[in-house]
Each structure stands twice: as C-alpha cells, then as structure tokens.
Amino acid sequence: MTTHQPFNYFKSGLAIGATIGLASGIAATIWVKNRKELSADDVLDQVKRAFLTEGPIEGSWINFEKQPLRKFAVHSNAYSGGITRMEDGELAIYEFLADTKTGTVLDITRSI
C-alpha cells in the first residue's frame, strides 16, 4: 500500500523552483556582464595607466560620445581620446580609439 505524502510534493516542487531560480540568476548575470560598457573616464584611466608605465604624461582627454567603428567585418563602438607627453624635449601627441566594452586600444597614432 502506497500513500502519497503532501510533504514529498512540496520538497520536489521546492527543488525544481530553486533550480530554475538559480539558472535564471546565472543567465541574468552573464547577460548583464556582456551588455555592460565602460565609462569614458574608466577607459581614459586604463590608457593613462599604460602610458604612465613608460614615463610621465603632460595631459589627456577623451570624447564622451561613443562613435561606431568598423574594421572589416567587425563592428563595435569606440571612444576617441588623446595623451600628450614630452619626448626628446618635444611635445608628442598620441590619439587613440578604445573599445567601449573592454577599454582595449584599437588604434593609436602619434604626431609631433
């Protein structure tokens, strides 16, 4: 003789609900991290730290407006900015494009 116990139904329902909740939480966390973009200030700080490892800088700037960037088949958004520093007694200007999601420098040019 088998009797159905309401407590067993509750335990199995609770386990299923907890599993669905955990899976939803993990999926939401991954989705939010993939959609997150760095602020222009954070990107500029990353670039400045990279330049400071080679020596002092005189100034820096960044454009807060994102601009679309296309390199062959790759589409992304980028911030444009610049760093100035003294090199061999002259002011050197570096202009860069940095990815808005990772802060990676995508392009950099130097002018005197």
UniProtKB/TrEMBL annotation:
Keywords: Membrane, Transmembrane, Transmembrane helix. The chain crosses the membrane at residues 12-32. The keyword Membrane applies. This is Small secreted protein.
